[in-house]
Design brief:
The structure is a homodimer of 530-residue chains.
Chain A (H helix, E strand, L loop, with lengths): L4 E2 L21 H6 L11 E6 L5 E5 L5 E5 L3 H9 L8 E8 L3 H8 L4 E5 L2 E8 L3 H20 L13 H29 L5 E5 L6 H8 L4 E5 L7 H4 L4 H11 L4 E4 L2 H15 L3 E2 L4 E4 L2 E7 L6 H9 L3 H11 L3 E6 L8 H14 L7 E6 L8 H21 L7 E4 L4 H10 L2 E4 L8 H9 L5 E5 L5 H4 L4 E3 L4 H13 L2 H17 L2 H16 L1
Parallel strand pairs in A: 1-6, 2-5, 2-8, 5-7, 8-9, 9-10, 10-13, 14-15, 14-17, 15-16, 17-18, 18-19
Antiparallel strand pairs in A: 3-4, 6-7, 11-12, 12-13
Chain lengths: 530, 530
Amino acid sequence: MRVSRVGRSGEMGNTTVVNDGRGSQGEAAHEAADDGHGAARGERVPLVVVSHRGPVRFDRDAGGTRRVERSGGGLVTALLATLPTLDRSRFDPIWLCAAATDEDRAVAAEQGTEPIEVDGVPCPLRLLAPDPEEHERFYASFSNPMLWFIQHELWGLATEPVIGRAEHDAYRHGYVPVNQHFADAVHTEIERRGARRPVVMVHDYHFYLVPGLLRSLHPDARLHTFVHVPWPQADAWRVLPAEVRGALLHGLLGNDVVGFHTHRYARNFLLSCQELLDMPIDLRDMVARLGDREIAATWSPLSVDLTRLEEEASRSPVPKRRREIVESRREHLLVRVDRSDPSKNIVRGFLAYDLLLERHPELRGRVTFLALIPPSRQDVPQYARYLLEIRETADAINERHGRDGWEPIDLRIEENFPLALAAYQEYDALLVNSVADGLNLVAKEGVALNERDGMLVLSENAGAYEELGAFSLAVNPFDIVQQADALHEAIITEPRRRRGLLTTARQVVEHNDPARWLDLQLEALERHTS
Amino acid sequence: MRVSRVGRSGEMGNTTVVNDGRGSQGEAAHEAADDGHGAARGERVPLVVVSHRGPVRFDRDAGGTRRVERSGGGLVTALLATLPTLDRSRFDPIWLCAAATDEDRAVAAEQGTEPIEVDGVPCPLRLLAPDPEEHERFYASFSNPMLWFIQHELWGLATEPVIGRAEHDAYRHGYVPVNQHFADAVHTEIERRGARRPVVMVHDYHFYLVPGLLRSLHPDARLHTFVHVPWPQADAWRVLPAEVRGALLHGLLGNDVVGFHTHRYARNFLLSCQELLDMPIDLRDMVARLGDREIAATWSPLSVDLTRLEEEASRSPVPKRRREIVESRREHLLVRVDRSDPSKNIVRGFLAYDLLLERHPELRGRVTFLALIPPSRQDVPQYARYLLEIRETADAINERHGRDGWEPIDLRIEENFPLALAAYQEYDALLVNSVADGLNLVAKEGVALNERDGMLVLSENAGAYEELGAFSLAVNPFDIVQQADALHEAIITEPRRRRGLLTTARQVVEHNDPARWLDLQLEALERHTS
């Protein structure tokens, strides 16, 4: 057996070498330890992690050799950062995720557990390849946009959504079978290991049904879901047919613990159980009661992997990008970094900047708004329209205020993480004005890397607000007057206050590291299942 | 002094005769009784009613004589129906409302209390004419659409609303001064009467600040607001700047009792106080605590005035309209009656009907959908767009399924209450599928008048659902598949079950009459202020 290793070489930590890739039936160590009824012999506890996106993607190079590349995104990055901190003498981890590439599907078809390593840490992986049509309905019709829009309260309910036959099918013949497929795979992994009281940690809105499906098979399992998006108030769920919203909630209630980024979401979740399912809840102990079971709602905001982030920020081509920014910048640099998702509120952010320039003509020519917008989900009509509106709004503002070679908004619609890292280091004000946002890692990454005592202007509807609100300028995402005022305040705030706020905010981000994030979840699970 | 009398003659109860109209300083009876400190002498308690729309409108006929005409609308009709039931030996009522016509403003300028009678019952009235520009901002910019859209959750938050300078002005220089103007007028009426412990009953979303303004002036006053629109969950209020939503809530918390149509809204109100103001609440006793005061949230759904409704339905031209319907109808008659308000969900209702015809070709040619849609607020862009979409959807469906002289949807975009009454009598199924709806009087009026054992298909998001849900076919307003199924079930349900449901539903409507609606509010006020 050869182990696939994914390390840090290459620009932005992408790819490296690899084995030739026929998957085995798992790590040798694990196979030796888990033959029998683990728990009875004081052995390692199986820890099954489930997420839609996996830690790596497989591919073949021109010569036909299998390659493996680390994936991106906040969820995967944070989970990978927890890997080295996991006590392997206690836990025997396995990560289940969906095949994303053709080569992923080939790996999945081999039915093995891939014995890969990421940054030198073993990361046992099993790729699953659900039926493509079911997966399409699951992913492109139900999870996105339906659940995403509900949880970020993006529907304009007067006319959207229309729950028609396609939407019913997307749930019944997409979300349900894919969840079943994953639950079956978790079951197989648990059975294979044989140990009692396995731990299963499911991630995000793709798999709300999985815990419910597992609970009936494994009454003693310790089940945890972490929800990475906002949990809206109960009425937002009324968009779905009663039996669908009921099934999703009951799926989650298969867990012992449901974790969120913030107290507000955890509370909304319990109130949803009360209002939509008529269940008793306790908002002091933060539990819902279902028969003789108690389900806890907890909160522990996702972390950023600071070590990795700082390393990436120091590597080529970030310093070059930074020099370019320094050479072209004006006196004040405003920055935003957001996918072109309607939840990110990019257009209102530009309108606020427009108002700032109108009210403070003295700033014209002295400030630049660098907006880094990786395009997102352009196959979804709402997203395509939104990106168009972003462009048009920026163009109109540049037309209105620009002069003598000064472009008020430097709009970059591109995926460019090195430039984002450079912009984090250089901003004077970072605008995060999301309409709704599970956490918002940009706020944390910016605070972690900034070197100019920059101010964070932060939406009160971003999950990060519970951690960083006190050390930022809070804004209502709908109120462009307040946002314009906050941008102005960010610019004129005196240096000592700026430094104090940034220092404290950074301490918060450092304190809540990936190890702590995982520990909080495992402790909660321990507390509520003992 | 001559008294203006508004009676029931004339088509649809409109207009009648009138005095020549110079207002006096109030009724003789009231003047005699209220000179001094009322309560100490066991006298009548002043009962000040505040609503934006008044019970009547003044006008001048061609000859220059002042005329008075009864107003329409559910709120005014219900309040007028409570007038004869009010114990005048206990209460001394006065109704304050906003001038709507030029002649109203002339009456307001006379500074008098108009001694009018409606249907033979004295209805002391004071018209107020706030500054026109302030009123425009108050009404057309802040109350509608801002509060209306928030409370019906109609905003597509990704892009709407943008709270800019105009919106801030609409609140600060519109809603605030108009509320102050009304609070001052209430204060004047209370002072003029001199009695202690006056009762003030404020209606609807136009006057959330009034109770707070009065509370500081009259600590002993018994203050009540009835909210006629839905009260959404706390997060819907986060659209407004924190200081604005805080001021609106604190305004309402000046009351002793805040009344709603449903338990769900009352609960949402208390949870809003907890979540947005961090106030202690008790969901068992349904109170919020503010310092040493307790504010109760109660619910008592608005009534329809059955006597009046039945009388109107028997009068010309309703029977003629009814004959026309009977002559032109097909086997099954579906009906809806709704203003062209996006909250009413007219387009999705048509899409559900389209699906019904597609799935049940046997119904083609045998069913007609009569949709009576009075146009609403066509100066508001969202409303104009929505009406266009209504027309286009109906046209497309008629084009797709119509044949041999059969028009699947008979769309009438017009104000035609006689036709609505005739349609109520004749429907086999009445569709009420609102996205959100404070109560929905159409459901109650339909049930009250129907003579064909018609079925009510009722949105679970309409306030009337708490009363009538058990006797109707419940639908999720977003789910057109379920709505199509419900329309089909309504058509095929066997007669005995149809009759049973209609009979019970009608009993509910009859039981909860206007006298009871008012009594419940006065009792709640008594209970929470003694």
